[in-house]
Structure formats: C-alpha cells, structure tokens
Amino acid sequence: xxxxxxxxxxxxxxxxxxxxxxxxxxxxxxxxxxxxxxxxxxxxxxxxxxxxxxxxxxxxxxxxxxxxxxxxxxxxxxxxxxxxxxxxxxxxxxxxxxxxxxxxxxxxxxxxxxxxxxxxxxxxxxxxxxxxxxxxxxxxxxxxxxxxxxxxxxxxxxxxxxxxxxxxxxxxxxxxxxxxxxxxxxxxxxxxxxxxxxxxxxxxxxxxxxxxxxxxxxxxxxxxxxx
Length: 227
Description:
The protein has helices at about 65-80, 155-165, 170-190; strands at about 15-20, 25-35, 40-45, 50-55, 85, 90-95, 105-110, 115-125, 125-130, 130-135, 135-145, 150-155, 225. The protein is an alpha+beta fold. The chain has three helices and 13 strands. The chain is globular. Helices cover about 20% and strands about 35% of the residues. The protein has a single domain (about 5-210), classed as FomD-like (FomD barrel-like fold).
C-alpha cells in the first residue's frame, strides 16, 4: 500500500521522465492537479521547458515517421542520445493515470478551454521518484476526436520497437490487454472517457513548472505508483 506521505501536493511540480535501461529519454515538468490513491492528474501548458532527444520530431512534423524509424529508435537501441531543451508549444495537456496501468490518457485543450483531442498513451506503469514519476512510452497511441472517432497511431513504430527489443514480449502482451481495456472503456463512455474532466481548467495563478537541476539523475530506488 502506498504511504500517504508520498502523495504530491496539488500545485506542486513533478517531473515525468521516460527512462530506458537507466538513461533518461525525456524529462518534462508538470503541475499536480490531483494525486490520490486511485489517480494521478498532472498538467502542462505552452511555455514549459522540457528535455528531449536532439532528434526527437514534433508531433506535427511531416517527417516524423521517417525520423523515428531511422534515428530515434536506433538511438534507443544503442543507448546513444543527447538531450536538449525544448519548449512546449502546443495545447494545454492534462494527463490522467491510474496506478499499475499500462496506459494513460492525455486531454488536449485549446486556448478557449475547449477539448481539442485526446490520446491514449500506452506506457509502462508510472513509478514514483523523489522528483516525480518515471515510465517509458511503449510507442503506441490511440487518438480520439471529441466526437468519439478514434484512430490507432504509431503501429509501425510499435512493430519496429518489438523487433529491436525496445518493447519486450511481456510488455507487448500488457499493451494488448490495455488496448482492449481502453477500447471497452471508450465504447461504454466510462472513465476516463465520460467527460467529467472535459470542463477542467488550470489554475491561472500557477506559474510555469520548471525542471530541477537533478532532472536526469535516475534514482536507484523507486516504487510503482500507488504501491
């Protein structure tokens, strides 16, 4: 059972990191919206500075698939990448994650507070660190339009990740189970697809979260979110 003193205070900064084989792939500071036994909700918005691989393409890049295939995934296999500071420039993003699950939900909001799009991001279960949470993106996403239309994204990356052993067979099995779970929840319009978070607005008094100086120092002891 998770110790209650490990909960992050609302409004505090947590760092969400993708970590592979002991090396940080990304590090992004978020503000905590809510942290309970059943849910971690965090937010980021335009202007936040984060760390990402030098050759990581933007979501909107027309060459994204090519760069991921020819540069990003081979770098992951070799453990050879350098991090650079990037500025979050798109929408306000609210991330919702339940303990022990192999997926989280990202809700993207426009400048007027309207829901623009949602992503189901398949990833390793979050683990708490002294500065936030660690995970690793397992390369597959489900994109959901506000009207409920959905589209699978990055399936070719997922296949290549398995061939390169970035995604293990055990992780792939968990992702397949998580896919079915997410689709069932979406079909039933159950949480987190039941619109209860669609009216969320960030606190205007919150300043931009920033990365601590030890953002890339991977702790040697970490526990699964919710334990």
